[in-house]
## 1
Amino acid sequence: MPPLVEQLKGGLDAPICLTWELTYACNLACIHCLSSSGRRDPRELTGDECKAFIDELARLQVFYVNIGGGEPTIRPDFFEIVEHSVAQGVGVKFSTNGSQIDPVAARRLAGSNYIDVQISIDGANAFTNDAVRGVGSFATARRAMDNLAAANFGQFKISVVVTRENVDQLDDFEALALGYGAELRLTRLRPAGRGADSWDRLHPTNGQQRELYRWLVARPHVLTGDSFFHLSALGEALPGLNLCGAGRIVCLIDPVGDVYACPFVLHDDFKAGSVRDAGGFTSVWRESQLFLELRQPQSAGACASCGSFDSCQGGCMAAKFFTGLPLDGPDPECVWGNADEALALVGAKPSPGPGHSKPTPVALSRR
Amino acid sequence: MDSHAAYRLHPQVALRPEPFGALAYHYGNRKLVFLKTPTMVALVRSLADHGSLAEAFKAAAIPPSKHASYERALADLEASEIICAAAR
């Protein structure tokens, strides 16, 4: 029998890790937003459609769902959807900027054992954070954390996208999490959505990546969502499966019910179908052409001759796609610099599309 | 593991069949664990039907030469609270 990781590459009967963006509406306009969120989409799934989708996930024994957005708590039926999910045995972890987590909401969340809350910040202080997430967003997130702590919510998560500007604050993030008894979660900056425009100046330098790797190896308790498997080329593998799960164990449902291969490839090329299709999510997951292709053995391409391929698997498909690199070659952040030459020669990159950004330019503080 | 003791699937754990075996999810501690062979899945499911681990091994036709490796795997599952001691 082939090893487990090889079997996982061939796909599962249902995803393990499913991200569901509940709405494109958002009160912030983060410059690295993966889903280019801002305006609500009028075709958004209705409350009844959301509940029917949850019932389908329960039948598939998807044990938990990662809810995001946009800002999911902006939906007036947010709690109704979350509580329906938990009641069906589909646990919920949701990401929020914290703006709606007032003392009442915090107490309501504390009442359930199966709801996990993840508050996003992208700097350990207002100056660094607000440059990415907007003025006042750090104070808002801290207030939400204070409210959860006061409501005895228990262990929530503090979620950080690692950037060139905040990578020297990792110890500060850890101290902040420790102060709340919270878990720290670090994830990788992807050049998707509005991130396509900010990636060049925000993604960590190669030297910073090496520091980050050393920091993470020493802290296996820090969560990463399997985000940094491209760094495993540097030595000992980081905790996790260390593989691209797109369409194999992972997928994304967007607010209008479209199913994409992963949360970082909101692009037509990676759209497998819709939960509104006749066979529902189940047949998209099991039968869509795209997902069946992603479960075929992938060529190592230009990485075939590199001794690190077994460790890093060539890195992240989405990062390659949106930087205009071939999917069967090195990751743009290859720690050995194997993508540098190709990156310099890239002409046109795939456009992430207009998305749902608000039409008026948002004033951003620049450093 | 104590081969004379009885074990069971933890009441907060759900099993999801998969081609390789099963996924086990603990709703309390939120751990997700892979049961990597169909034999392991059948064994874990049958634990509660037997008064001891030794009886469960016998019923599942697991040869004595493999008991030690199964016990190690079951000890990991107990540490993750996927299985637990059953009251006799």
Note: Chain A has a mean pLDDT of 94.
## 2
Amino acid sequence: MIGNGKEQVHLHICTFPAGLVCIREVGMPATTVTFFPPGEQYFMKSDLLKALSTRFVAERHTLMGFIYTMVRDLAASEDIFQEVWIRLQEAIERGQAIDDPARWCRAVAKNLILHYWREKRVSKIVADTELLHLVEQALNEQPEDWSDQRQALLECIDQLPDRSRQLLRMKYDEGLSFATMAERLGRSVGGLKMALCRVRLALQECVNRKLRSAE
Amino acid sequence: MSRLDELLLLWEDRSITEQELMELKQLLASPAGRAQAAASLLLTGVLLEWARAQGAAGSVMAGPERAETASVSLPSPFSRAALPSKRRRIAYLTGLAAVLLVALGGILWYHSQLAEPDPGWGHIVQVQGEAFVVSKEQRLPAHAGQKLVRGQGVATQGADSEAVIHIADAIRINLGGGTTLVTATEADEANGRPTIILEQGELAIEVSQIIRRKKFAVQTPLGVVVAEADQTALHVSEALGVVVVLGEASFTHAATGKTLRLKGGEYVAVAGDEVYAARFFAGDAKVWSTFPPGFTDAVSVAFSPDGNLLAAATHVRGGPGVRLGPPDCAVPLELSGDRCVAISPDSQLLAAGEWGKVLLYETATGKLLRVLETRGQRRVSCLAFSPDGQALAVGKGTRELGGELEMWDVKTGGLAWTVHAHVSGVTSLAFTPDGKLLASGSWDKSVAIWDMETRTEKTRILMVPALVVRSLVFAPDGQTLAIATGPVDPRIRQPGDIRLWDVASQAIHTTLRGHQRAVTSLAYSTDGQTLVSGSADATVRFWDLSSGREYGMLRGHRAAIGFEGLAVALSPDGVWLATASFDRTVKLWKVAGGRKIRPPGRELFSASAGGCRPATSEAGNSYSVVSAELDREKTCYLSACCGTE
């Protein structure tokens, strides 16, 4: 709950339904749900929240990529992502000073990932805290504004052949393992790994080309 | 492709080896490696968002993409008019073959697309109260419009909460309060049918259409139910088990693996290793009376032996807790008293408990005739008139305090004898039809059989397994005592049962199981062949005593957390079934004669004629329950009622 006493707002951010970002404002007397196309400005009821949400939404990709890469489970990643957003709101409500929201979110996400790993240790999911720290460090060292890269990436994805896009959908929408994908497509696991690596490499090269040409 | 990206992919896929993990960490130790990793994470994040958007819009995109592919692949020989005719023919045939190949490829691609599961298994379309999207140990607020992906379930919290999920607009799932459902894993769905798992609570499911020949399945603790036809409606809950309201379904019992085919109006009944279909009585009855909100931990209902009166009681703080009136009239009298009622064999007297006292009313007028001041400060918990009407047995005590049994002379109003019958409070009393024996049940998980002549305890029946005795009733021939049992705390989710104790052999010969919570009330049909039971699971069940099987279930009251009892009573002519419940209503159901339910497909419930019409028995050898229509306009004052129509 965030507000100044007269205007109380509870925000709930939805993760990527149909490619949009939705921010739900639960307040009196009505609850409103607003969907924003990616890249659009977000208008909230307070300046603080506006700045916060814009920043959070702009940096959601690296945060989600970080969480997913570590957790490796789509549903659990989304839950952690949501939890980070909720905790950020709660921190603002408490009046906690947050100098760098992106770094703060990653630190919270890291703790949640560690908690997730602890919870799942019984099922022998591989966890490596050293790797987690290294990946967090990697993001902390990089510039926060990824908007150019993100835009270029979306353009590059549009140029991919259908087959490659199908591969990406299976991996990142359905969350299938290579073994399941291989079974479904009648291909070898090794071949699929290579294929996905090639697609990702092609995307990165495409982004680099676009960024260079823009310069 | 960089080695680092490749290793990150292996890590993501959980197929990384120890050596490769070490290598990955070494690469991340360098600033260049970390920069590359950051770019890789951004790529992953963008791909996740893009893929989800594609998944949601997949069906819309499929058409144009196919068209684009076809147009690119189309051969162009048709424009080459200058070519010689033979070459033109070859070019034509080649082109035709290419078109056919493309078309074939398109068909195969289309089918492969169909074979893929939906990117999300459902959408939440409605949320009321507290509802959450659950995934492993995470719980986040649910909202309408939310897409549910594999691994995500939905949970509602609180009795008034509710959520509705749609699956591809062909399946509607309504979650009741306190319900948790999750999705099956991919391995569980190996047979290709979408499956949801009910962990607790209740679901109402409507399958309007079977999608792509994949039959929808629900896994419950009892077993797996599969909707076998379009337009199938299922009700699945802990209390009811699996009910097919409409359409057709198959059921596989989890414990035995036995499979059963169910049609509309049937539910799964289990008796030991036997699994069979029994009839489910849907619908609702008219409310005969209601009680105001208050503390309720006992409920009782009784017909007068002449069948002209019905009495019900509940515990109401600060108000009259007893209702008395003819069964087919509305607005019964409100009298002081609570917890328990009994009507004398000549139907002239009504006895009602009121804390440590017993109130005796004249049934014809509702006038208070006498107050029996029982000994001590213990609460009256149950009452029973002896068959000759000379004595009134009074059971007292609570779960914590000892159970006293008092025998009162109805004529003189004097205490005939008393005995400390149980370690804990007495919960129920029943006389044999000949009046020679009295059975008393207790919180102490035992039943005592008292010889009325010698005023001594004749037998003590210990409940094994240990369950509290909640209700007792002797069969009309006096040869069998039916004992209803349940857990000490009736709110906990532990099934109760019914034990049939043979008076001659002094042994329990049959145990009837089916209720999901404590069994709180019992009634025998006049022919002794059917037993009716009410339970804290908010259901009434009908038992065929010749086969020992449950053959029907009626659900006419609301179940909720804290719901602790349902009382049943059958009128002597077998026409009326009265049910009094912790939902603070007393309902009347009209029961057709005989003892077997009607065959499937027949209308089981319909409103009978209204007004104060004398009850008449229905002909036929079936046993069904219909709702009773009461005349709300007419206030009925006992003997003055029903004089004219």
Note: Residues 85-115 of chain B form the longest helix (31 residues).
